[in-house]
Amino acid sequence: MPKCRNCGTIWTWGQTVCRLFTLGDSLTCPSCRQEQFMTMESRKKTSLFVFAAPLIMFISVAFGIDPFVSLALFLVSFLVIMGIYPFFIELTDERGPMW
Ligand SMILES: [Zn+2]
To answer: Which domain of life does the UniProt lineage start with (predicted)?
Structure first.
């Protein structure tokens, strides 16, 4: 789970997911309200997840799997990805380069 570099608070799964849906590249700490940023390393890891769900759906469509099954696969993979995503996030208090 991500840990705030400023106050050392370890964010909960729910707090992390909520923050992922906010706009911008910074994540505000729920405890000290300081802006935190994802480290380059964790951005690299999580960028794979972002493509996984659409990729699974694309593959199932390409192989002629029933659209409803592909959609279900997409939703399931999306939920699984959201479930494990926060575990791969590491925080830094410095805004790094985007890539
Ligand atoms: Zn904090």
So the answer is: Bacteria
